Amino acid sequence: MKKYVLLILSPDEKGLIYKVTSIIFKRGLNIDKNDEYVDSEENRFFMRAEFSGETDPLALLAEIRASLPERAEVKLEEIRPKDIVILCTKENHCLGDLLLRYDSGELEANIKAVVSNYDHLKPLSEKFEIPFYGISHEGISRQEHEQRMLECLAALKPDYLVLAKYMRILSPEFVHHYERQIINIHHSFLPAFVGANPYKQAHERGVKIIGATAHFVNDNLDEGPIIAQDIIKIDHSYTWRDMQKAGRDVEKVVLARALNLALHDRIFVHGNKTVIF
Amino acid sequence: MKKYVLLILSPDEKGLIYKVTSIIFKRGLNIDKNDEYVDSEENRFFMRAEFSGETDPLALLAEIRASLPERAEVKLEEIRPKDIVILCTKENHCLGDLLLRYDSGELEANIKAVVSNYDHLKPLSEKFEIPFYGISHEGISRQEHEQRMLECLAALKPDYLVLAKYMRILSPEFVHHYERQIINIHHSFLPAFVGANPYKQAHERGVKIIGATAHFVNDNLDEGPIIAQDIIKIDHSYTWRDMQKAGRDVEKVVLARALNLALHDRIFVHGNKTVIF
Amino acid sequence: MKKYVLLILSPDEKGLIYKVTSIIFKRGLNIDKNDEYVDSEENRFFMRAEFSGETDPLALLAEIRASLPERAEVKLEEIRPKDIVILCTKENHCLGDLLLRYDSGELEANIKAVVSNYDHLKPLSEKFEIPFYGISHEGISRQEHEQRMLECLAALKPDYLVLAKYMRILSPEFVHHYERQIINIHHSFLPAFVGANPYKQAHERGVKIIGATAHFVNDNLDEGPIIAQDIIKIDHSYTWRDMQKAGRDVEKVVLARALNLALHDRIFVHGNKTVIF
Amino acid sequence: MKKYVLLILSPDEKGLIYKVTSIIFKRGLNIDKNDEYVDSEENRFFMRAEFSGETDPLALLAEIRASLPERAEVKLEEIRPKDIVILCTKENHCLGDLLLRYDSGELEANIKAVVSNYDHLKPLSEKFEIPFYGISHEGISRQEHEQRMLECLAALKPDYLVLAKYMRILSPEFVHHYERQIINIHHSFLPAFVGANPYKQAHERGVKIIGATAHFVNDNLDEGPIIAQDIIKIDHSYTWRDMQKAGRDVEKVVLARALNLALHDRIFVHGNKTVIF
Q1: Closest CA–CA distance from residue A58 to any residue of chain B (Å)
Q2: Which UniProt keywords apply (chains A, B, C, D) (predicted)?
Q3: CA of C202: which chain A residue's CA is closest?
């Protein structure tokens, strides 16, 4: 029996749940999981349903669309492991953590490749038999470098790009190729400490807590929709290097948590915010 | 326009959401908030909906019941502030915290009275103009003491009894009068350290984290369904008195959080567990 | 037997602990608690000792000073409950929480008075028999208002001013009267969301965690040395009003924790940071 | 210049800090870090100092010992990376996490070998070029199996044995060979849910928080001195398998944190508790 996931983001109206569940019920499908949320201030309705059974998904999608307000966004997909590409630079903790989850079967995704602007993590990727593409940024323009990356990615067709401590800023042109498909881990509790060296900034400010933020990448550095955040407590005895070391544990866990939500189609993006079921 | 809350706990079947939402839609009512959860292992369906509009609640309830499996439990109520009675002994932090929330209008409930086996907290209750009933347990049997408590409570007709550090064990006979209506705060991270003096037990065991647990009271001491838990980190420098002092902050916050969930009909009890929307 | 607390902040040198403990030992005093920390980057030595016994504190202080580098700052005090004044505006949760701790004897301080620019919290203060001074800011200049506050405070001679949700900005002139003696609770995880309406800012940014920060007040709004921070997790379903409500629980606990550290002379301020023992 | 760490656990007396620091000072050594703690209830003094300089460590140790009460325990060591052996069974997350930290140079230890009762994790160990010894427990007695383990370990001479989800109970005989040298990760917030299948137990009890505990192994299962604990929040929607999956993230981080403390000689064990600097 096939399994599907349905995502609806629509202007709110009376009867939406009834209309959608009635279509599903009348086709004899079984709803395994269902969530709704209404943002009253924005008058938005969010619905996510997992269901199973035999159906013609295109016809079903058309019928659901027809029952909803005109400006509703609807997505209906068979549930399957997504394809991802991991981008990284030199630090091994986020990449390694994802590779271990992949190795144990916990990560429900296909890692198509690792792409990096340095070769430092080639041995690690190859230990887990993941193709590694080193695309150096040295001696070429940002534009040229991104062009080479895009060519490489075009062949891999990933559902998501995962920036696992990829330490270069992506241009809006690059980002537009993968709108809402790029997940980054930022090593601070955003919006505190945007930009470079957040641990140094945090050390200078004398904070008692540091954090990490996983977010979708959009045109504005560190300002994309936040998916997950977590923190750890520190004290005055931490140098910024200690913060960096301690921070790695929260970075890798937050990135994995955010990716897992994306892989299961549990994230809606609306404006600059996420709704997560 | 009136507001209602509907709670359904039912054996799971295909089409339950559709059936219930169709009844609500056809009566022209507006669903403001809707949550479902299916416990697949136990084959249980949980649904909570808030809706508004003009309707005959008894007729609506009857129609919903008729559409559901025979063994479904259904509750439909107009949304209103509940009546509570707070039981306490000598410590002021949980009682005081609830009184402050009441005073600022944050606690959406009527505190009908404070009942205690000592008079220590009478002045505090009276500062906030809440009737205080001191019912001493001294010189009388447990049975006799509980009898006096029950008489006092019978006149007050509370929706919930809140044990805000009430340091006596209630007999099953007493509990049966207020099944699923008594909320207790236990000063440990249950099921660790059941029984008396949990902070002393925690100190002896050398734990690095202490916690608090709010739960419904049932026949077995500290074994009722858990509603909310939280923790704070400690270290070797804490004596058990320090733990007790630090623990108060988590106790009062966890109790208030659990009570707030109960006041808004957001808790289902199934077996010895809670499902919370 | 008298109890003393000694605080030393000094350029670091070899033998400082030895020199200080030797003076204390030779006078037959007993060290009950001792902490040191060296900030190697800044070459600063921090030491805090509690000791007990009979001694001439002025002579002891002079001897310790003489043994230390010239630019060392030394403070030696008999341990005693400090005097505090609480400033507030309209919200009751931080003030009420401190009053309850005072009422139970947990707060080891004398609350000399509550001062507010509104009269809303007069009844609450009076419930706990604390003098309340309403000093309205309406119809007068900031300068004039602060002048009236300073006159009121001059008579009360507080060790610390506690801003328990005091919603006005204090001028540098005011702050200079109480350098490192004013503790504020800011309702965000600083340095995120400085300035007005942090919960609204947080809501707009779509964060998944909110926090509170207790800090000393200096000339720059929300930029003083941080004493304590804590957070709670939220999700998309929180309106900014919900955040505000949830945030109160973390605000009051963080403020009380920071005040407690100050009352026990456990905080050093160095530059814009704190070292806490 | 050489670096040393000094650990003292002694009955408390007046002047201990003075005596020890005076010996260090008079030899011209430089204290880089110093911590003390007095457990007043038990009348125990704990001191840990890191210092640097040229000295004869045996003579220094003798002089310090002579200055202390007879029953004092003193340890003085040159600071060096410790040797560890990791024991595991089938789950890869704790082992993999340690290997990644090792690979990046973050783990300041030599991993001498991985030892397991199954061969499942042989490929993972070998990816990182760590010798793997599979010592099956099948078809032989517990005694015989442990004998083979001990023979293997005797040749490796580890400072610490790290039980990275090693799913067999060690006999007291085995433990006595490595008193206070075996660190285990237990997948619950001890003392809740001792013994087998803690996540199943936690699921059954309906807790709202799960945790992990790293502890030294002693004769009594899950009752050794606790080194580190942490938790994550869950809700009713977690099956025990979901708890297990979520729990892995906290297990690996807590184990790494505890190991790091041991590797830097930051843990004292006194009775069944730890004091950690």
Answers
A1: 22
A2: Hydrolase, One-carbon metabolism, Purine biosynthesis
A3: A191
Q: Which residues of B touch D226 (CB under 8 A)?
A: 205-208
**pLDDT of amino acid D221:** 81
Task: Please give the pLDDT value at position C221.
Answer: 81
Pick from B124, B61, B123: nearest CA to B94 = B124
Q: What three-state secondary structure class fits D114? A: strand
Q: Is residue B222 annotated as part of the catalytic site, yes or no?
A: yes
Q: Which of D209, D261, D266, D269 to mutate to test the interface with B (most CBs of B within 10 A)?
A: D209
CB C171 within 8 Å of CB C207: no
Q: Quick: pLDDT tens for B30-54.
A: 999 999 999 999 999 999 999 999 9
Residue C34 φ then ψ, to 5°: -150, 135
Confidence of residue C1 (pLDDT cuts 50, 70, 90): confident
Q: Which residues of D touch C15 (CB under 8 A)?
A: 21, 25
Q: Report the gap between the CA of D79 and the closest CA in chain C (Å).
A: 19
* CB spacing of C245 vs B106 below 8 angstroms: yes
| Shortest CA gap D28–chain C (Å) | 8
CA distance A34 to chain D (A): 12
Q: Which of D12, D103, D119, D222 is catalytic?
A: D222
CB atoms within 10 A of CB A39: 18
Query: Considering only CB atoms, which chain B residues are within 8 Å of C263?
Result: none
What's the DSSP call for residue C211? E
pLDDT-derived band at A220, boundaries 50, 70, 90: confident
Average pLDDT score over residue span D211-231: 95
Task: State yes or no: pLDDT of A227 exceeds 90.
Answer: yes
Residue A222: band (very low, low, confident or very high) from pLDDT cuts 50, 70, 90 = confident
Q: Which amino acid is at D20?
A: V
Is A14 part of the contact surface with chain C (CB cutoff 8 Å)? no
Say if residue B10's pLDDT is above 90.
yes
A249, A257, A276: best to mutate for the D interface, most D CBs within 10 A: A249
Q: Identify the CATH assignment for C3-78 out of 3.30.565.10, 3.30.70.260, 3.40.50.720, 3.30.390.30.
A: 3.30.70.260
Question: For a pLDDT cut of 90, what percent of chain C falls above it?
Answer: 95
Take residue C87 and report the two structure tokens written for it. Answer: 């400033």
Compute the average pLDDT of residues D206-235. 95
Contacts of C167 (CB under 8 A, 6+ apart): C89, C90
C203 within 8 A of C240, measured Cβ to Cβ: yes
Instruction: Note whether A3-78 and A82-276 share their fold.
Output: no
- Res A276: pLDDT: 97
What are the E-state strand segments in C81-208? 82-88, 109-116, 132-134, 160-163, 182-186
Instruction: Measure the CA–CA gap between C219 and C174, rounded to whole angstroms.
Output: 9
The arithmetic mean of pLDDT across residues D94-118, rounded, is 97
Which pLDDT value is given to residue D222?
87
Phi, psi dihedral angles at D220 (to 5 degrees):
-105, 120
Q: What residue segments make up the domains of chain D, in order of their start?
A: 3-78, 82-276
Q: State the Cα–Cα distance between residues D45 and D18, nearest whole angstrom.
A: 13
Active-site positions of C read 222
Give me the pLDDT at residue B196, please: 86
Looking at the complex, does the CB of residue D225 fall below 8 Å from at least one CB of chain A?
A: no
Measured between beta carbons, which residues in chain C are less than 8 angstroms from residue D24?
18
Superfamily of domain A82-276, CATH level 4: Formyl transferase, N-terminal domain (3.40.50.170)
Residue D7 has pLDDT above 90, yes or no: yes
Q: What is the mean pLDDT of residues D184-193?
A: 93
Please tell me which chains touch C, using 3 or more CB pairs under 8 Å as the contact test: A, B, D
Q: Check whether A263 has a pLDDT greater than 90.
A: yes
Contacts of B21 (CB under 8 A, 6+ apart): A15, A17, A18, A21, B31, B34, B49
